[in-house]
Write a structure and sequence with these properties.
The chain has about 350 residues and is α+β, with helices and mostly antiparallel strands. The protein is built from 7 helices and 7 strands.
Length: about 350
């Protein structure tokens, strides 16, 4: 019986059985003497006393266990999230204590997670404020120059163009923040259907064709023209464009950027490679962190959201993205998507 897994209950039961057996043996022996009734009565009183003492000791032990448990609960409620009830023994009460400890561990984990979320939100707001501060300050300077009785139309045109770039930068920041927040919250539904991956890459190439010609960079697309994959074309294009934009931001005139599509029996692979400045080894493991800015990229206009957004979109398609880079020689992004197979 499960009730006897508790050693205190087993001990109490054994003490009662022993008392009863002693009483029975004593009663049988007393039948040989005169005044048997008095002897049996005395033995019954002794047996009752032993049983009452055994019950009292049992209740004292149980009360001590419960008081210790209550003390641990008070300690937990006062802020010691590591407080736990001792429940090394078996039995229903210890099983209850084990469940309470499990609940306390879950609550502590949730509290830690909430604390980390608040810390992340605080850091994110700080990063957003920092990212917005630079273009807003620039806009104030440009507008101040324009308003300062400037009559040179060429100068006005220059500063209005600069203002437009800063406004575009703010818009990009806000849009990327909205997208990545919606992905985190799960409010965006990725609507997948079979798409030609090469055609998606061709669209991306067309969007950057003008920039490539303006900056004097080669932009090449190769690979399997028939590769197909179950994906959301809009979101996948967004991810690929962010990675390609990163390549353009870190290459110089004369450099080459290439996209290649490979199809395998169980996987679609996209490789985006450039011959640009590369990534410093100390930055390589941080490039997918939000708002991460390397100390070696002070002259770029990145806001640190493009690559994290791309990674989130790729993972929403059950894909993985890896990066390999050598400083001064270029960077390679390898994106893998598994193709579900029917068993």
């Amino acid at each position: 019986m499960k009730i006897f897994t508790n050693k205190d209950i087993k001990r109490l039961f054994c003490e009662i059985i022993c008392s009863m057996m002693i009483f029975i043996v004593f009663s049988v022996v007393c039948t040989q003497f005169e005044n048997t009734a008095w002897y049996i009565f005395g033995a019954a009183i002794c047996m009752a006393a032993v049983i009452l003492i055994a019950f009292y000791k049992y209740l004292c032990r149980q009360n001590k266990i419960i008081e210790n448990a209550a003390a641990k609960l008070r300690e937990y409620s006062l802020g010691n999230t590591n407080a736990r009830i001792d429940c090394d023994d078996e039995g229903a009460l210890n099983k209850l204590f084990h469940e309470v400890n499990t609940l306390a561990a879950i609550l502590s984990a949730n509290a830690d997670k909430e604390l980390q979320a608040k810390k992340f939100l605080k850091n994110t707001i700080s990063d957003i404020s920092h990212q917005l501060k630079t273009p807003l300050a620039a806009l104030n300077i440009y507008n101040g120059i324009i308003q300062d009785d400037t009559t040179d139309l060429a100068e006005i045109k220059t500063f209005t163009d600069l203002s437009e770039k800063e406004l575009d930068r703010i818009e990009t920041l806000v849009q990327n923040l909205l997208k990545i927040t919606k992905l985190d919250a799960g409010t965006i539904v990725v609507e997948k259907k079979t798409e030609n991956v090469y055609e998606i890459l061709a669209d991306v190439k067309n969007r950057f064709a003008f920039r490539a010609s303006q900056e004097g960079k080669q932009f090449i697309l190769t690979g399997d023209t028939l590769a197909e994959f179950l994906c959301d074309r809009t979101w996948l294009s967004e991810a690929l464009e962010n990675i390609v934009k990163n390549a353009f931001d870190h290459t110089a005139p004369g450099d080459k950027i290439s996209m290649e599509c490979k199809s395998f029996s169980s996987m679609i692979q996209i490789i985006i490679k450039d011959t640009g400045s590369g990534i410093q080894p100390e930055d390589l493991h941080h490039i997918f962190k939000r708002f991460y800015r390397s100390r070696f990229s002070k002259n770029t206009q990145g806001i640190g959201l493009g690559l994290p957004l791309a990674k989130s979109i790729i993972e929403a398609h059950n894909g993985t993205v890896e990066v390999d880079s050598e400083w001064g020689k270029g960077t390679v992004f390898v994106i893998d998507f598994l193709i579900p197979t029917e068993l």
